[in-house]
Amino acid sequence: MRIFDPHIHMTSRTTDDYERMAAAGVRAVVEPAFWLGQPRTGPESFADYFDSLIGWEPFRAGQFGVRHHATIALNPKEANDPRCRPVLDLLPRWLDKDGVVAVGEIGYDSMTPAEDEAFAAQLALAVAHDLPALVHSPHRDKARGVQRSLAVVAESGIDPGRVVIDHLNEVTVKLVRDTGVWLGFSIYPDTKMSPPRMVELLRAYGTERMLVNSAADWGRSDPLLTRATGEAMLAAGFTDDDVDRVLWRNPVEFYGQSGRLELTDLDVTAVDPTTGNSILRGGE
């Protein structure tokens, strides 16, 4: 089983996690920029953090045979802090870097006017830099947040196929399924989704445009729940090809739109079997 975790915060994890992930079949990850658990006091701390996402963390991952990519953004929670807003002017410096495969996480936390402005501004940056966008759906009032997110995406003019709305569940999947955007699901020990619940959604809605991630961070989470989801799919009668589509080919296809995925020299075959074409670097 080959696994690409499309949303995991490895800065919060230990090298033991990388070792266990590699043993479980995880060969590639995307780490979105996010809130660190306490307020940052200015844009300089973001600069150091972004540098670590494109420098130190890929090096650390590489020691265990895991290919690391990142998404860069001002996250929704800190979009409300005026000390952090100048980060929006600094983002283009990192959005042009190799290994940055999307703008994210963007979207809503509390659905404030400040979040509206930051969300729209960063979707515009995604269009300007020809990058996909990773949208965080809020943990509170999620259905309204997803509806509002879809409206902002539509207003932005970005191709819906270059957007993933993450942290979906049984209620919100119905709102997103027919909009053309990608659907992201986070598998957690206690909250969000579980492997059995994810299997039922895959039965109901199919495997197309479905992304499954662990979203593991500094809270209670598990970077091996992508593997557990694949095993639950097989136990429920899904084929090896179904599992490969959800856990490998789908994230490669989505983030491959950036033209910056680098999966060479991994012990996986990064070719879409339906077309025979490499999609590692956006079809090059």
UniProtKB/TrEMBL annotation:
Similarity section: Belongs to the metallo-dependent hydrolases superfamily.
InterPro entries: Metal_Hydrolase, TatD-like, UCP005295
Keyword flag Metal-binding: yes
Keywords from the named record: Hydrolase, Metal-binding
Name listed for the protein in its UniProt record: TatD DNase family protein
TM region positions: none
Lineage of origin: Bacteria, Bacillati, Actinomycetota, Actinomycetes, Micromonosporales
GO molecular function: hydrolase activity, acting on ester bonds; metal ion binding
One Pfam family named in its UniProt record: TatD_DNase
Organism of origin: Micromonospora mirobrigensis
